[in-house]
Every structure is written in C-alpha cells, then in structure tokens.
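ok new one. same drill as before - structure tokens go in, u give me an amino acid for every spot. 720 of them this time. try not to just spam alanines like last time pls lmao
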C-alpha cells in the first residue's frame, strides 16, 4: 500500500492549490481597479479640456452681447430660442419640414393674450409657433387656428385692417423696427415695414428680405417665413392679429409671444453664436462633444459627437496584426467565450441630449457657481456611460456661461477589454503549459508507481510466495526510497518464506533419530513382563510414538514430492483413463460413500506423470470425503473445455471462510478444528495437490456454492 500523506500536509497542498487558483481572480480585480483609475484620468482630462476652452472665451463680452444672455430670468414662450435646423426650410406653407421638431413647438393661446376686445367672449384665434436657425437665416412658422380668415383688400392701402402677423425687433443697429405680414390671397408673401414711430401705422414700406408663404387650412391658415439674421437683434416678438369682418372689420384679439408696441415689452431671442461655434469647431475631430451655454443653460454653440470612436483612449491601443494565426484563433474561438462575461462598448445608443437646446445638471450648477464640476450619467437605454465636465466662463468677474465637454467611457472600456483579453490569453497559456507540465510530471510519477506495482505483483504470487526479487530504484526521491524499501521487504519475505517451506523437512530430519531411539526403547521394554498399570503406560507411549512418526512422514511427504517432481520423467498418457481408474478404486475402497461420476469418454492426452495425477485425485477426494455430509454424494466431473481438461470435485458440507479461499493451498494451512481431528493434519494435502497441478502446467482453485451448501474444487490441465 502506498503511504498516505498526513492530513496537515494534504490541507497545505489544498490551500496552496486554491491560492494559485486565486491568481486569475486577482488579475481580473487588478484590471477593474485600473479601469477606475483610467476613468479618474479621463475625468481630469475632460475637465482640463473644458478649462482650456473656457480660457479662450474668458473676458470676451462681444460673444455674449445678446441681451438674452444677460437676462436674470428666462420666461418660456416670451424669450425665444432659435433651434439649429438640419437644413433649409422649404417655404410652401405645408409645414412638412417642421415635423421632426414637433417636440419643440409652443402653443400660444389664452395665457398669451395681449389684447382682447371682449374679455367675456371665448378666444377665437390661437397658434403654434417655432423659430429656427440655418445658415444666415432665421426661420419661423405659425400654424394659426382661426374660424374666419380675413384677407387684405386688394384696393386698400392699409395692411393692418385684416388678419396679419406683426413682427418687432431691436435691430443690430439699435433701431426698433416693426413689420407686418399680410396678404390678399394664399401664396408668396413679403413683409411691410412700419414707421419708426410706434404710434403710426402708415405709410408702410415693402421689405422684400422677409419672405414666406401663406396657406389657408381647414382650421385657419399657416405662415412660413424667413428673416435674414442681419435684420434680427437680441429682442424679438411675434403677434397674430385676429380681425373679424362682421358687422364691420374690427380687431378682435392679439395673441403673441410678447407685446410689440415698445422695445421694453419685447421678448428676447437667442440665436446660437457662429463665433463661438468657430472657436470650438476644432473639437469636432475628437470624440468629445463640446457645449457652450449661457447662464440660463441655453445652448450657444455645440460641436462634436460622442458616438465617435476616435478618442485618445481608443487611439492609444496598439494595432493588432489580424493576419497572425494566434489573432485568428483568439478572434474566432476565444473572444466569443470572453465576451460572454465582458461587454463590448456599443456604437449605437440612445443619446437623449443629442438635439438639446437647454442643459441642466449638477456639474452645470457647480460651474455657474464658479467652480469646475463633473458628473457621470447613464444613457436612457443603459448601454453607455457618459462623462460630463463643466467649467465657468468669466466676464467682468461674473459667470456668463459654461463650457461643457461630454465623452463616453467606450474608449476606456475598450482598453479594459483589451487588457482582460490579454490577461485571459496569458492565463490560458500559463494554465495550458502548467497543465501539460503537471500532466507529464504526474504521468512520470504514475508510470513509476505502476512499474513498482507490477514488479511487486510479479514478485509475489496469489498464494503469497516470492517468485522473483524486486530491484530497488536508484532515483534519490521518495518513490526511489519506496522502491528500495519494497525491495528490502520482498527480500526479507523471500528468506522467511524459504525458511517456512523447508521447516517441515528440517523438522522431519531432526526428529527422526530421537523418535527412533524412543521407539526402540519401547520395543525392548515391551519384551519384558509388566504389571497392568505399567503396561498401560507403555501402550500409550507406543501410541504416541506411532502418531509422532505419522506426523514426520506427512511432513516429509511434501519435501519428497518436490524433489521427485524436479527429477520426474514425463510421458504422454490419456488423462480420462487415469481418472476413470481412480474413481473405480475409490468406489471399491469406500463402498459406504456415494460418488456421482461424469467422466468424458473422449481421449484427453496430457504430458506428465500418471502416478502424480492419481495422487492429486487422492488428495482432493480424501478432502471431499472428510468434509462431506454422510447422506450426500461426492460429485466428480472430468470434461474437456477447449484445450483444457477440467476436473471438478464437489461435496456438500461446511464452506470455506472468505479469507481462506486461496490460502488453503499453502503449506501447513488447515481450517479443521482441533476437536474434529481424529488424526494429525498438518495442512499439506491441498499444498501437495497444488504442487502436482502446477507441475502439469495447470491451475487449481476452490469456491463455495452460491447457496453456501458446499465446496467445489476445480483443476484445469492443458491437453495436447
């Protein structure tokens, strides 16, 4: 049996193995910690970008000279924002080009009434409005609800005695200018400029720079127009005048973004600054998105796209040689496994701020208070993380705006994935090499152990006899020490076995002379006349000497047989005839014992000594008769099985112990109880049967019946 490691040592080996398994986990955790530091670095880098851009905008009031930027409070609906348009608007009055901006449209109704002739009557005119900017023009549309559209008379000089749109602005030259858009019919329209004096409405001057389209609808009418940005200042207001024709034409209501009769009542309009856009335009080549907002959070300029993958983090990745066999293998087989755990940064995600015109957030509030700030947010679909940093823009010691930079963490996540891919590749490589090395090492150890096991099994047969010596290994390790220990043990066992095997012959030789002296002395004493008591003791002594002599004869029988077997001359003879002759002799000799014989009549030739075969059967039949029940027959079968002659001798009676099935064929082994023995037994009968069987190249075995009612001995001898 191989030595067992102590429990403490096995526990240490297990702990060490578990610690080695922790190394990949530690590497994984290290990469995640590095990602945290990379995110911190990205945050600081983005803050530096915003501070650099804010520095370029510091103390430049001309960029923020719009009154809309200096307002203390922005009123929705009154203070307008010109949304950046994706393209020029086709002025056809159908409003199709405005559909994508529906979420920015404002509805003007009762809350925006500037004048109403009869406040107790329901308002009959409302409109939906929006302004946008593209190129050098300010576009606007008005979807007016009016159940009675009154056009301008074709022969009248007045332009205000009908339904019309009034526009007022504080022009860039500082002049307060008013315009009216009115038409005699649907179609192309131009505006009319009113006198500078607000109290006068005539005379009017056509203004062809303001162009548009008037289109009547089922609900009222639509107006689409464009105004050059050069005509629009920081203040702007629109009003829809509703005029009814019955019983005479009169003004019913005015609904608008603000009152337009004086400059002070006008609302403001914020148009994204082209000057600021030109400053931050260079950032469009980066993956950052830059916003510049005023102190109300309204967007003054925007540049860049956060969906871009050309960030500094992504560009820092070393190029991959996709043509190498290793990269092809990893991309086709390993990466699909890796990305069951990892997630690829998505290029397509929902960006809720893509077209925003007003921004808000903790980082913007912090920047408006004069301190740089940053924040992280998750996109609405949860597929990307966006980092936003903000820095204040100072003008005359006041924060007039904020520079905001946004960037996704896709570049860092790509770096993390690349690092984890390399980590996993290294782990797989190390584990593969380690597994192969351990497999070869374990195979070497197991082969040496198997070799030692095979040598041990060949050195000792199933009966425990030493058949060959065991050669100790010369290796100076534990297995070598074990091999040398086994060789030493087998050598000592061979000496002890040899001593036991020769003990019977030595005892027989040494005891014969004393027994002969005692016998001769008893014979001389028996010639004299003795009284009854003395004669009784002489008879008992003579009986003991005879018994001792029988023991000596039995002890020497096996030794004589071994010597005779080594010198025996073999011949070819029919085995079945020898068996038949023996059985006939047993039936005559033991008439009180029943035999059930089944001997094949076929000639089975064997090379050996017939007398020894007869002695083999004598021993087995004598053993069966001794243990057989009185009323049960001994069954003897002799049949041919392929190239073997099979002798089966069975009897009903006590069974063999489980641990004695093979040991009963050893020298001086007996399972008889001392009380049941009427004559001395040294356990040599079955040992002699085994010697004869092995001399003829056969095997002998014993087994109990399946129902434990008896024992069967089986002898297989090879035939010619």
């Amino acid at each position: 049996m191989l030595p067992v490691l102590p429990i403490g040592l096995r526990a240490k080996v297990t702990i060490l193995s578990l610690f080695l398994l922790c190394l990949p986990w530690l590497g994984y955790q290290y990469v995640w910690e590095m990602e945290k530091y990379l995110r911190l670095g990205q945050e600081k880098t983005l803050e530096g970008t915003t501070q650099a851009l804010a520095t370029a905008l510091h103390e430049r009031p001309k960029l923020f000279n719009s009154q809309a930027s200096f307002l203390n409070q922005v009123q929705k609906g009154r203070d307008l924002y010109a949304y950046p348009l994706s393209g020029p608007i086709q002025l056809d009055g159908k409003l199709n080009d405005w559909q994508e901006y529906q979420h920015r449209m404002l509805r003007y109704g009762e809350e925006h009434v500037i004048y109403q002739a009869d406040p107790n009557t329901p308002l009959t005119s409302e409109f939906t409005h929006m302004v946008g900017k593209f190129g050098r023009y300010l576009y606007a549309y008005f979807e007016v609800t009016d159940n009675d559209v009154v056009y301008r008379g074709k022969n009248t000089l007045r332009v205000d005695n009908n339904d019309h749109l009034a526009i007022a602005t504080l022009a860039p030259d500082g002049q307060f200018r008013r315009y009216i858009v009115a038409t005699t019919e649907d179609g192309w329209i131009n505006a009319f400029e009113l006198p500078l004096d607000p109290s006068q409405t005539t005379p009017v001057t056509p203004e062809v720079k303001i162009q548009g389209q008037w289109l009547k609808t089922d609900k009222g009418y639509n107006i689409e127009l464009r105004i050059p940005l050069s005509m629009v200042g920081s203040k702007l207001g629109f009003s829809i005048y509703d005029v009814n024709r019955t019983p005479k034409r009169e003004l019913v209501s005015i609904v608008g973004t603000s009152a337009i009769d004086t400059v002070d009542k006008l609302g403001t309009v914020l148009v994204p600054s082209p000057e600021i856009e030109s400053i931050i335009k260079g950032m469009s080549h980066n993956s950052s998105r830059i916003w510049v907002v005023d102190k109300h959070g309204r967007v003054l300029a925007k540049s860049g796209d956060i969906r871009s993958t050309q960030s500094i983090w992504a560009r820092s990745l070393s190029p991959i040689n996709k043509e190498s066999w290793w990269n092809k293998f990893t991309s086709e087989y390993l990466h699909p496994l890796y990305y069951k755990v990892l997630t690829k940064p998505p290029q397509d995600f929902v960006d809720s701020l893509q077209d925003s015109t007003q921004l808000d957030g903790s980082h913007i509030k912090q920047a408006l208070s004069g301190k740089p700030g940053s924040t992280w947010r998750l996109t609405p679909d949860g597929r990307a993380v966006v980092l936003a940093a903000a820095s204040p823009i100072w003008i005359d010691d006041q924060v007039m705006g904020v520079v905001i930079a946004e960037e996704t963490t896709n570049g860092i996540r790509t770096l993390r994935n690349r690092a984890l891919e390399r980590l996993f590749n290294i782990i797989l490589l190390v584990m593969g090499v380690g597994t192969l090395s351990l497999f070869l090492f374990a195979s070497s150890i197991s082969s040496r152990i198997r070799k030692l096991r095979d040598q041990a099994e060949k050195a000792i047969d199933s009966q425990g006899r030493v058949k060959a010596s065991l050669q100790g290994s010369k290796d100076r390790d534990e297995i070598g020490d074990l091999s040398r220990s086994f060789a030493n043990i087998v050598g000592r066992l061979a000496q002890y076995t040899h001593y036991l095997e020769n003990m019977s012959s030595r005892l027989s030789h040494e005891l014969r002379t004393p027994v002969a002296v005692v016998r001769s002395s008893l014979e001389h004493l028996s010639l004299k006349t003795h009284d009854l008591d003395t004669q009784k003791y002489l008879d008992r002594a003579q009986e003991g000497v005879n018994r001792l002599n029988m023991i000596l004869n039995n002890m020497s029988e096996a030794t004589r047989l071994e010597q005779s077997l080594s010198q025996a001359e073999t011949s070819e003879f029919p085995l079945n005839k020898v068996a038949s002759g023996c059985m006939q002799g047993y039936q005559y000799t033991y008439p009180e014992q029943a035999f059930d014989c089944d001997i094949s009549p076929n000639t089975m030739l064997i090379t050996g000594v017939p007398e020894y075969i007869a002695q083999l059967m004598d021993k087995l039949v004598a053993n069966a008769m001794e243990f057989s029940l009185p009323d049960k027959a001994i069954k003897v079968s002799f049949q041919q099985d392929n190239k073997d002659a099979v002798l089966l001798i069975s009897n009903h009676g006590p069974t063999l112990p489980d641990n004695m099935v093979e040991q009963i064929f050893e020298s001086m082994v007996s399972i008889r109880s001392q009380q049941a023995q009427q004559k001395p037994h040294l356990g040599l009968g079955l040992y002699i049967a085994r010697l004869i069987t092995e001399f003829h190249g056969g095997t002998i075995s014993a087994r109990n019946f399946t129902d434990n009612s008896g024992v069967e001995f089986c002898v297989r001898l090879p035939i010619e």
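Residues 436 and 442 are 10 Å apart (CA to CA). and btw The chain has a mean pLDDT of 82.
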